[in-house]
Specification:
heterotrimer, A alpha/beta, B alpha/beta, C alpha/beta, A: alpha/beta, Rossmann fold, 7-stranded mixed β-sheet, C: alpha/beta, 6-stranded mixed β-sheet, 36% helix, globular
C-alpha cells in the first residue's frame, strides 16, 4: 500500500513541544506564522523577536534565529535588528499586555517610523502568564484578578483598540484584525499573514496582524466555550477586517 | 491577638492599608502579583486609590505625582520591574518625596527567573538610579517582621522625606505563615506635609514646587549636602540588626538577611548539636548597612562568613566594615536556587578544617 | 504531637494539592502552632506538577524550606518519582493507589496506599480526592484532630462553597477509615 503525505508539521516551527495551555490559540497562531514563513521561503533568513507573556518561550518554537526582548520592547528590538539586517525578514510576536500596555510607545513609534517589520499581535484581553490580570484590551465589565468586580470605565477607561489606533499613523502600511475560531477564519488569517510578510518583502513598510485569541484558563471557561465567548464578546468590540492598506499608494515605498 | 495564616504578598498588602497607604500604583510581575490583586479589591473597599499602571515606569511616576501632592503612596514590583523604576526613584529621592516600594526579589540579570533571589542588593544600596542618593531599605526574614515594617514604613518615609524600600525574596512573598496583622507598631512622628504641591498655594500664602532640577552647580551641591545630612541621620538612627548566638564563644559569624538568615538559623541549630558554635549578624535594614553590629564581637571570632542568594553583593559592605579585622569568607547560591541547611553546615566545617574555600 | 513535622504534598494541577497543604497550615494556626506553607510556583506548574510543603512545629520555624521530609503525600506517579528520594529514613509515604500502581518503594520507609480516587468517585465528586488523602494523613500522623479541620472548613468554605462542606467531611472520614 502506498502512503502519501497530505499534511505535516511546518518547517517554520521547531520540533519542540509547545508549552501553551490546552485550548489556547497560540498553537494555531504559531503554526500559521511558521507556515507562512516556510512557504514563502523566508524562514531560513528570518529573525524573530520574542516578547514577555505567555509566548515568552516562543524563541524555542519558531525555527529561525530569535532574540528575546524585555517586556514591551520587541518593536524597538526589531527596529535595531532590521536597521542592521535590512534584507532579512524581521518579525515580533507579542501579547496584549506586552504590546498595548508597557509597549505602547514602542509599537506606536515603530509604526510611526514605518519600520519595515511584521508584528504578530495576539489579543486575548487578559494577562495570561502572570495569572489573569486586567489588560488594556480587557472588556468593560470583564472580571480579572485586578478588576475583581469587572472593568470599570471610570477607573480604567474603555478597552484599547490597537489596529484602529495604529491606522491613524501615516507610517503604518498594512493592518488587519483576524480570528482563528474556525477553519474559515483560520484560512483568512493565514492570508492576512501572507499579505503582511509580502509588505515586508516588498519593502513597503510596517505591517501588523492582530489575532483575536482566547485564554480558557484565566477566563475560567473551557476551550470550546472560549472560542464562542471570543466570537460573541471580543469580535463585536474588535471587529475583524483590514484597517489600513497603503500598499497601492507610493508614500510608504522605502 | 489571634494569628491569621496569610500569604506574604497579601500580608504586605494588608499591612500597607493598615499603615495608612492612600494610593497604590503597580503592574503585574511574578512573584508579587498577589499584591496588586489584593489591593485592586481592598483599596476601593477602604476608599483609597488603586491603579494598575501601563508599566513599572508609569507606576513609579504616578507614585511621584501622588507623593508630591502629599499622599502616602505604595508601589510594588520584582527585580526587573524595580530596574525600570530606577529613574523614578532617583527623582523621588532628589525631590525629597516619601514613598514605600516593595521589591519581591527574583533571579537575574535581565528577565532572569522567577525563583527567590537576593541579587538586587547592589541595585538597592548602590543607587540604581543616577546621583548621590540613598534608600532606607529593610530586609525582613519572616512575614510578621515584614508586616510590622511595612506598617511603619509610611511614617518613616514621611519623616525622612525619602523613598523607603522593603526587599523580600520570592519565597517570603509566596509562602504562608501565621501573622498578627494588628500588632501595634510605633509610628515615627513627623509634622504636616506643608511642603507638598497639593494645590493650596493661596491658602498657604506661597507656592510649593516639587523639583529635582538645580541648574546652578553650587545650588545642586548644596542640595546634595542637605540630602546627605538626612542620610547621616539615617545612618545614625536606622541601623537595624539582630545578633544571634553570640554568647557561646563562636569562631565563625554568619552575615545573612531575609530567607537566607532563616536557613542559616537552622544551620546554627544543626552545628550546635554537633558542638560547633556559630553566631550570626542579621541585618534587618540593609541600607544603611548596620556597621554597629560588627563592633565588639566576641574574642573567639576569627571569620565572618557572608551568606547570600547572589554571588556576593552584601559581601562588599562586609569587606568595608570589616576593614581587615577578621578573615572573610563567602557562600552563595544564585539564579533562584535556595540553599539547603546542609550546604551551609558543610561550608562551616570546611572552614574549620582549614582555610578558605 | 511530635515536635516538628515536615510534609511534602505533590500531584498535578487541579488535584487540590495546594489546598490540602493550606488546610493543614490553617489548622495548625488555629491551634497556635508555628507553621509555614510554601507552594511551588515555577514553570513546572503550567499543566504539570503542583506541590507544596508544610512545616508544623511547636517551636518557631527557622528555615521554611523542606528538603528532606518526614512524610510525602503523593497523588500521582510523576510526583512519586520526583519526591520519593526526599523522604527521610524511617519516614512515611502515603500514595493515592488509584493513580499510583505497581511502584517500587524504598524499603526504609512505611508506605500507606489509599485509593483516594475511588473514594472520591464513590462520594460523587472527584475533586475531593485531596480531602481523602488529608484524612489518611491525619490518621497516620495523628498530627491534628479532625474537629480542627472541620472548623477550618467552616471558615474557608463560605457562601456558595458552604454546600461543599459535607462532602469534604465525608471524604476526610473515608480517608481516615482507609488506613
Amino acid at each position: 500500500m502506498k502512503t502519501k503525505t497530505i499534511y505535516e508539521p511546518t518547517e517554520g516551527l521547531t520540533e519542540r513541544e509547545l508549552t501553551y495551555c490546552p485550548g489556547c490559540t497560540h498553537g494555531i497562531i504559531h503554526k500559521l506564522t511558521g507556515e507562512v514563513l516556510a512557504e514563502k521561503g523566508l524562514i531560513d533568513e528570518a529573525i524573530g523577536v520574542a516578547s514577555v507573556g505567555c509566548s515568552v518561550m516562543s524563541y524555542e518554537f519558531f525555527n529561525c534565529d530569535m532574540q528575546q526582548a524585555a517586556h514591551g520592547r520587541a518593536p524597538a528590538v526589531a527596529t535595531g535588528i532590521k536597521r542592521v539586517r535590512e534584507d532579512h525578514t524581521v518579525f515580533t510576536y507579542q501579547g496584549d499586555g506586552d504590546l498595548a500596555s508597557i509597549g505602547l510607545a514602542e509599537i506606536v513609534h515603530a509604526a510611526h517610523r514605518g519600520e519595515n517589520i511584521t508584528v504578530v499581535f495576539v489579543n486575548n484581553a487578559i494577562y495570561g502568564m502572570t495569572g489573569g490580570q486586567m489588560a488594556p484590551t480587557t472588556l468593560l465589565g470583564q472580571k480579572t484578578t485586578t478588576s475583581p468586580t469587572g472593568r470599570q470605565k471610570k477607573a480604567a477607561g474603555e478597552p484599547l483598540r490597537m489596529s484602529e489606533l495604529l491606522a491613524t499613523i501615516p507610517g503604518a502600511t498594512y493592518l488587519e484584525r483576524v480570528s482563528v475560531h474556525d477553519p474559515k477564519h483560520i484560512r483568512k488569517a493565514k492570508k492576512a499573514l501572507e499579505k503582511a510578510f509580502d509588505v515586508q518583502t516588498k519593502k513597503q513598510g510596517f505591517s501588523m496582524i492582530e489575532f483575536i485569541s482566547t485564554c480558557p484558563v484565566n477566563w475560567g471557561i473551557n476551550p470550546n466555550d472560549s472560542l464562542k465567548w471570543a466570537v460573541d464578546n471580543l469580535i463585536p468590540y474588535y471587529p475583524l477586517g483590514v484597517y489600513k492598506d497603503a500598499t497601492e499608494g507610493d508614500h510608504n515605498e522605502k | 491577638m489571634a494569628k491569621m495564616l496569610m500569604k506574604g504578598n497579601e500580608a504586605m498588602a494588608l499591612a500597607a492599608i493598615k499603615g495608612g497607604c492612600d494610593a497604590f500604583f503597580g503592574y503585574p510581575i511574578t512573584p508579587q502579583n498577589e499584591i496588586p490583586e489584593y489591593l485592586s479589591f481592598h483599596m476601593e473597599e477602604n476608599d483609597r486609590i488603586f491603579v494598575q499602571a501601563e508599566s513599572e515606569v508609569a507606576a513609579i511616576n504616578m507614585v511621584y505625582g501622588a507623593a508630591g501632592s502629599g499622599a502616602r503612596v505604595l508601589t510594588s514590583s520584582s527585580s526587573p520591574g524595580i530596574a525600570l523604576k530606577q529613574e523614578g526613584i532617583s527623582y523621588l529621592a532628589g525631590s525629597e518625596l516619601p514613598c514605600v516600594i516593595i521589591n519581591v526579589m527574583r533571579g537575574g540579570p535581565g528577565l532572569g527567573g522567577i525563583q527567590p533571589s537576593q541579587a538586587d542588593y547592589n541595585q538597592i544600596t548602590r543607587g540604581g538610579g543616577n546621583g548621590d542618593y540613598k534608600l532606607l531599605t529593610f530586609a525582613p526574614e519572616n512575614i510578621q517582621e515584614t508586616v510590622d515594617i511595612v506598617k511603619r514604613s509610611f511614617s518613616l518615609a514621611d519623616y525622612y522625606r525619602n523613598p523607603v524600600m522593603i526587599a523580600v525574596d520570592g519565597l517570603l512573598g509566596q509562602m504562608m505563615e501565621p501573622v498578627d496583622i494588628d500588632k501595634p507598631v510605633e509610628e515615627k512622628e513627623s509634622g504636616p506635609k506643608d511642603w507638598a504641591a497639593d494645590g493650596f498655594a493661596k491658602k498657604r500664602g506661597h507656592r510649593n514646587k516639587i523639583v529635582s532640577l538645580h541648574l546652578d552647580p553650587q545650588d545642586l551641591e548644596n542640595h546634595n549636602l542637605k540630602l546627605q545630612k538626612k542620610y547621616d541621620e539615617m545612618r545614625e538612627n536606622e541601623q537595624h540588626y539582630e545578633l544571634i548566638n553570640m554568647d557561646d564563644n563562636p569562631e565563625i559569624i554568619f552575615v545573612a538577611y531575609g530567607s537566607m538568615a532563616r536557613i542559616a538559623r537552622s544551620a546554627i541549630d544543626t552545628l550546635k548539636e554537633e558542638g560547633i558554635e556559630v553566631g550570626m549578624i542579621r541585618p534587618i535594614a540593609i541600607s544603611p548597612f548596620p556597621q554597629k553590629a560588627f563592633e565588639n564581637l566576641p574574642d573567639s571570632v576569627h571569620t565572618l562568613l557572608t551568606l547570600e542568594m547572589s554571588l556576593g553583593q552584601m559581601l562588599q559592605d562586609v569587606q568595608i566594615v570589616n576593614n581587615g579585622r577578621y578573615t572573610l569568607d563567602f557562600y552563595g547560591r544564585t539564579g533562584g536556587m535556595v540553599p539547603g541547611t546542609e550546604e551551609i553546615v558543610d561550608k562551616v566545617k570546611a572552614i574549620l578544617k582549614g582555610g578558605k574555600q | 504531637m511530635k515536635n516538628d513535622e515536615k510534609v511534602i504534598i505533590a500531584g498535578f494541577g487541579g488535584q487540590g494539592v495546594m489546598l490540602m497543604g493550606q488546610i493543614l497550615s490553617y489548622a495548625a494556626t488555629a491551634k497556635d502552632l508555628n507553621t509555614v506553607w510554601i507552594p511551588s510556583y515555577g514553570p513546572e506548574t503550567r499543566g504539570g506538577t503542583a506541590n507544596c510543603s508544610v512545616r508544623i512545629s511547636e517551636a518557631p520555624i527557622n528555615s521554611p524550606v523542606v528538603n528532606i521530609c518526614d512524610t510525602l503525600v503523593a497523588f500521582n506517579e510523576p510526583s512519586l518519582a520526583k519526591f520519593q528520594s526526599k523522604i527521610k529514613k524511617d519516614g512515611i509515604l502515603i500514595v493515592n493507589s488509584g493513580l499510583i500502581k505497581d511502584q517500587t518503594y524504598r524499603d526504609d520507609i512505611t508506605v500507606y496506599e489509599v485509593d483516594a480516587s475511588k473514594h472520591a468517585l464513590d462520594l460523587g465528586n472527584l475533586k475531593v480526592v485531596n480531602m481523602v488523602m488529608l484524612g489518611a494523613y491525619l490518621k497516620v500522623t495523628g498530627i491534628i484532630e479532625k474537629e480542627t479541620i472541620h472548623n477550618v472548613f467552616d471558615k474557608l468554605f463560605t457562601g456558595r462553597k458552604a454546600d461543599l462542606i459535607d462532602v469534604n467531611k465525608q471524604a476526610l472520614e473515608a480517608g481516615m477509615k482507609a488506613i
